[in-house]
């Protein structure tokens, strides 16, 4: 038996099929949580809340068009909810002050040693801090491409921007991220 596509499952969800909803949640919950966790700077509670809100939007959606790819549509909802959350000045100040330092690791390899877990956490913390220094337009493109594995076309569809803009933001974002992670060393002997 062939597994149903996300688009087929979403059509079933719109007719009230709870099994289809459970399948979509099972399929997308962890990757979406990881994406939002990185997007909001490592705040586990906030990322979990945003995942729940995203899934509620999916459940309430009655205008989904099956011709539209599901995954970019889902991530567009999640990205917009995160943006809406950070529009508040009080929230922006709290986030920038570093109150959200709780670590969350999504490790797909359960065979990793404790040393590998610590190293991954350390590197993840450095990358997360570097990503947080980038403007949102670059951070979102980098997260979707390198953490979520989106194609350039899927990123364009998710963010409702031209493909050329995706390529430009990806290039600039990688360059700026590299500059933050590997600062130019002057006068090193």
TrEMBL record:
What are the RNA polymerase sigma factor 70 region 4 type domain coordinates in residue numbering? 126-171
InterPro entries recorded for this chain?
RNA_pol_sigma-70-like, RNA_pol_sigma-70_dom, RNA_pol_sigma70_ECF_CS, RNA_pol_sigma70_r2, RNA_pol_sigma70_r4_t2, RNA_pol_sigma_r2, RNA_pol_sigma_r3/r4-like, WH-like_DNA-bd_sf
Q: Which SUPFAM superfamilies match?
A: Sigma2 domain of RNA polymerase sigma factors, Sigma3 and sigma4 domains of RNA polymerase sigma factors
- Where the record annotates domain RNA polymerase sigma-70 region, the positions are 24-89
Judging by the UniProt lineage, the source's domain of life is Bacteria
What keywords would UniProt list here? Answer: DNA-binding, Sigma factor, Transcription, Transcription regulation
What family is this?
Belongs to the sigma-70 factor family. ECF subfamily.
**Entry's NCBIfam families?**
sigma70-ECF
Q: What is this protein called?
A: RNA polymerase sigma factor
